[in-house]
Structures are given as structure tokens and as C-alpha cells.
Model the fold of this input.
Amino acid sequence: MNLTGNYSYWVTIFIMIAGLYIVIARGNLVKKLIGLGIFQTSVYLLYIGAGKIIGGTAPILSPAFSTYSNPLPHVLILTAIVVGVATLALGLAIVVRIREAYDSIEEDEILEKDRIEDAGG
Amino acid sequence: MTRDLVLRVFGKLLIPFVLLFALYVQFHGDFGPGGGFQAGVITAAAVIFYAIIFGLPAARRFAPDWLIESMVGAGVLIYGGVGVFGIVFGGNYLDYFVLAHDTVHGQERGIFWVEAGVAVTVSGVMLQIFYMFAGRQRDREEA
Amino acid sequence: MIADHLPALQVVVPLLAAPLMLLVRRGGFAWLLATLVSWTALAIALALAFKVREAGTISYAIGNWPPPWGIEYRVDALNSFVLVLVSLVASVVAPYARASVAAELPREQHYLYFTMFSLCLAGLLGISITGDAFNLFVFLEISSLSTYVLIALGRNRRGLLAAYQYLVLGTIGATFYIIGVGLLYLMTGTLNLADLAQRLREVHEIRPVLAALAFITAGVGLKLALFPLHFWLPNAYAYAPSAITAFLAASATKVSVYVLLRFYFVIFGVPLVFGRLPMAEVLITLSVLAVVSASLVAVFQRDLKRMFAYSSVAQIGYITLGMGLANKAGLTGAVVHLFNHGITKGAIFLLLGGVALRVGSTSLARAAGLARTMPLTSFGIVLAGMSLIGIPGTAGFVSKWYLILGAIEHGYWGLALLLVVSSLIAVAYVWRFVEMAYFREPEPGAARLAEAPASMLVPAWIMVAACVYFGLDTSFPLEGARSAVTVLLGGAR
Done:
């Protein structure tokens, strides 16, 4: 077990847990989405970190180079980033509509309003 | 913001070059970093820049809502259409090898159209998101 | 010539229909196209199923890049079964949706609704058909994103919060899945599912593989609402537009179950999942908790849609239970229940959509005397409810029978008994509807209520008829499930 040699994994795990913590601990719907974004970022790092070879270049064949980095993780993560952007945009759009319907973006206030509605009718 | 002379002048000067740069990124994607996704985002950024300086209504005159929504669909259709062409020419779905007389040119042609589709959709989606968020309050008040 | 391209067309047809609807911007056209597309998808799925039965596994290389380098679409007995289920449900829901959507959504949203429906269908079919782990993630997100939109379209403002919560949990689930796939990719250097299964046998450093297993279990578990990860489900089902509730309940969670089955039995393999790890015990415990607790919660619901949503959590428990038993009878029960629960819940939620349309609400109190005003709808719910309970002669009985056989085969007599007892809880909540609809007087003024329109009633009754038909003639689902189980257990070796 090499603790310092695997530092990119430590960073990955830290970002992952930090993001997940924000999602769980915050009641503000926008902050939750920010946490979700941070959480997804950890995956990007996991893939990219594994695909990189120190000293390797982009895989365009040329006699000048002998080491190439694996391009596949980059391609995959490009897709994952697009998915992340789409999720964030949709999440924010839903938050906008929640704000219009409830006049709040705090989860506890929204649930309270639902409860009052239940009790009233 | 709309009365700020420096911004208006430099905006008008810069936006054509931003659009030109988008085209460069699009077509240079064959040889270096770049391609449809980046080009689409840069195009959308130019329009968003224009909307921020000159106001949303001006931007909507330049790129109306129906055009943006059609772009979202059209790009996907171009991309998928390339795939269907692969089947029509006797290959598999998204098969670029059969799109030209030899495989290398086929790949090049396939990628070209796919990237074109990606650029159209991406700029459409980015602008659609921007319009939706920026115009939300205004549209509701008008309605 | 076209027959060779069926695996690609299965996904491409609904995928390309969606942007076409966006371009035309007409609700009527979008509905027509969505209906045609789902019927085409069903035809393709059936053709693929017959082809698989005769010629064995079909492999299709997208872009003519040979697997494992390119993306491969791979159809075998297991996923052709899931493809048939998903496209069958879609082709019943799509014609139904016209009247239901017209009543529930503003006109200018109709074409967007059907665009999202087609995208969701494409996503679900893509998850089932693809042979590539990362491609699976992309389709998972396509189907999930369109699902969030569809749930947020619901009339009640609580639908927004339900969609938001599902979005957060669904994204966490999908991200967990992709972390798991990333770890597997690091260990084996491949993303092709079939290749992955082979190369994992040669991996000796087991710890990252175990971590991958944990991530994928948690991630897919969130998507399929495995107890205790089911909190998003009741609200999402209760507040979504009626047709969407029926579509999701009948197909979305089932596809996630398929993913978990594929990973457990074909990729990780029985020796690792059930031999080295106590996943059997974990799955069985969670499933039993799901069945008992969710059924009990369902009994005390005051809204019919929520009641049957909780019942869905319980029914998914039966499926994962069969998975945890991991023997031939148990797995057959699980796969058959995938299908049977799909049609049963589809029928119930389609009928409830008619109730929502006519009565204006699906609360239990408003269903008083429903049998008099809407006799066909009420009788349909009762028949499908019997299938939910598992009364002999209905589809639900067949799957429970196999689950009990599977439990007995392991010598788990208590578990077999518990399966019977849990059906009694299902009797309790179905009975609450029966009591309300048949033994209460209708509210004054409710006498004017009419039966749901034929365009909704006919598709719903097709599903109800399927519940009864597949309970009497069990050959289609059972044969499908048996060959699917051969894939699952054969892949384990």
C-alpha cells in the first residue's frame, strides 16, 4: 500500500465525500445542486487520473513520441461532463419553478407549507 | 449596461471574431483540439454576450426562440441521419467506412457531419437554457 | 437487409422520433408519431426475441468497429425479454396518453411531453440492449433526465419537489454506477460487458472489484428503489401525470433490475457475489423488509396512487428476493415477476388515470361508490389487484409460486410462509379500495360521473386482460424467463 503514490485517489475520495455531504446536509435546493456538481466532479478526476501517463502525449501517432496517454477516459468524461451540465440545468430549472410555486427554496420551509396544506384540506 | 459606450463598441467589434473563432474551432477539429461541442458553446457564448450588452429582446430578434428550438432538434437529426446513411449505404448504424469510396475519406466525411450536428445542437441547447433562465420572469409578466 | 439492423433500429427509431417532434411542434402529430414509434419498437423487440430464440445471441457492432473496441449491441434471451416488456408497455401507454394528456397538461406542452416520452423509451430500450458499460450509463441518464421532466409536468406543485428529489437521488445513483464501472475499467481495461465478464475472472487483486460491486449495487439500487433506497419513488409516482406513472411503474424500475441482474450474475458471477460476499443474505433481508414494511405503509395511505406506489416498492422486494435466492426457481420467479408486475401495475395505474380524469382526484375518500359510476374501471382495478395479491388464475400467482418454490429449495420454510403472509397484507390494501368502491354510497352529485373515454379504457383493459391471460396461459413469460435464467446461471459457471 503506497499512501502518497495514490494521492489522486485521496483527492478523488475527498471531493466525492465533500460533495455528498453538501447534498445531504444542506437544506437549500441550489446548494444541494452545487454539492451534486462537486460530487460528480470526483468521477471526472477518477477517470482522468487513471488515464494519464506522466510524459505521455495525445495519441496522434508520430515518430517523435513513444509514450501516449490513454484517450478513452477523456472521451468518456467529456460525455459525463455533458450529462452533468444537463442535470445541473434541469435541476436549476426545476428549482426556478419550485421557487415560483412555493416562494421558497429552503427544503424545510417547502415541506412545512405542504404540511399546512395537508392539515388545512 | 446598455448605455455603456465602451462595452457596446467593443462588443460589436469582438462578437464577429468570436463567431469566426467558433468556425475555426469547428473546422480545425480534424487536426487539433476542437470540434462541434466547443464550437457550439463558443457560438452560443457570442450570442449570450450580445444579449448581456444589448439586452435580451435584441438577442431574440437576432436568434428567435423558434430557431433555437429547431436547432436543438435539427442537430440531433443530422447526427442520427449520418447513422442512418451508414445503413443505407450497406454498412452498420453510424458506419462511416461506407460513406465514401475509401475508408479514410468515409471516416472524415462521417465525422464532419456528426460534428456539424453536434455544433448545431449544442449551441441551440446552450441558448435555449440561457433564454429560459434569463427570460423567465419577463415571459411570465407578459403572459 | 433491414433485418440485420434491428438491434440498432430498436433504439434509433424512438431516439430520432424525438427531435422530429420538436421540429414539427404539433401535439397531435407528436402523439401519432409516439404511438407509431412504440408499435414499431414492439415489432422490432418481438422480431429480435424470435431471432434470439432460433439463432442465439445477436451481436451488432455500432459503426462497424468490432467489439470489444467499439460499442456493441448484444441481444440475448435475458434482455430480449426486457425489450419486449418495455416496448409492450410503451405501445399500450402511448395511445392511452392522448386523452389523458389533453386533460392534464396545457396545449403548448403536448408535443414536448411526447418528445420526452420517446426519449425516455429510447433510453430504457438502450439500457436493455447495449453491451457496453459506459453506453449503458449514457442511456440511463437519457431515460432519467426525461423522466425528471415528465414527473415535473404533473399538475400538483408537489410534483416539482418529487422531481427534484428524484433528480438528486437518481444522479447520485448514476454517479455511483459510473464510479463502479470506472473501477472495473481500471482493473480490466475494457468496458464491453461480455469482455468484462471474462477478464474479471483473471483479476486477482480483488479489493477494487469488491468496491466496484458495492458502488454498482448502491447506484443501481437507488434507481430500482431497493429498500431502503426507495424514498423518491412514492412521491414521484403519486404526482407524475397518469400515463407517465403507468409507464414508469411498469418499465423504468424493471430495467434497473435487469442491470443489477446482468452485473451480479453475468459480470461479477455467482461465486464472487454469493459465494465470497454475503449478498444473498443482504438481498433477502432487505427484500423481506421491503415487502413487509412497504405493504404495511400502503395499507394506511389515503391516496390510491400513493398506495399502489408503496405497493410497487413491496413488489420490487419480491423481485430482489428471487435474485437473492439465486437458484433456478427463485430467479425464474424474479424474471417472471418483472414481467407480471409490469403489466399488473401498468393496468392499475392506467385505470387510476381514468379515475383522476373523471373524479378529479385519486384520493381514496373520493372513490366512494366508484363501482356504480365507473363499473368497468373499478372491476379492472379489482382484477389487477387480485393479480397483485397473487390469487391463482392471475399472472401474479405464477411468479409468487416460483418464488416460494425457490425459498423451499433452500429450505427457507419461514421465508415461504412469509411470502404467503405478505400477500395477505396486499389483500388488506386492495380490500380498502373494494370496500370504498363497492360498499359505499356515491357522494351526492357523483352520480353524473361517466366511465373513462374508450381511448383510455381500451388500453387499460388490454393490460388487465394480459394479467388474467398470462395467469392462465403461462407459456410466454415462463419460457422467456426460463431461457433468461439459463443466460444468468450459464454465465456464472
Summary: Residues 57 and 86 of chain A are 30 Å apart (CA to CA). Chain A has one domain: 7-120. The interface with chain C takes residues 16, 20, 23, 29, 32-33, 36, 39-40, 42-43, 46-47, 50, 73, 76, 79-80, 83, 86-87, 90-91, 94-95, 97-98, 101-102, 110, 114 of chain A (CB under 8 Å).
